[in-house]
User: What shape does this take?
Amino acid sequence: MPPDQGSTSGAQLHFRALENLYASAPVNALFDSRLEIPSAGQSRITFTVDERSYHAAGAAHGTIYFKMLDDAAFYAANTLTTDRFLLTTSFNLHFTKPVRGGEVVAEGRWISGKRRVFVAEARLVDAEGDEIGRGTGTFMRSRIALSSLPGYRSDEG
Assistant: This one.
């Protein structure tokens, strides 16, 4: 169920718990990144691109684009359900510009769906403010309860 939008504290607790869930995922130890959820249906991941994520031609490999776009869209969608973890069922992405280094922001936005299937999009913006990639994903409710995941907790409560 979506957080009670009339209850700011309930929604805020859910958002902080999702931010903690992101930080607790072992894969995220590989990336200098941080998730922020400003409001329902939105997410923002700030990360740093450096030579560790380069392909042979000296720019960020597409895997970093996919990971950050997928995560941003996923968390934007998961703000709208407080009981279940969502799973990515499909994701389309478009590369616009290579990035060689610096801070990049992935901005996620929920588009539609609130019951079983959610659609969300994300875009990547480099330090110059240019869009470097964009993607749209479909996410389905899983059988995994958010409350069963050790990382899903709010430090406020």
In short: Residues 8-148 form a domain with the Thiol Ester Dehydrase; Chain A fold (CATH 3.10.129.10). The radius of gyration is 15 Å.
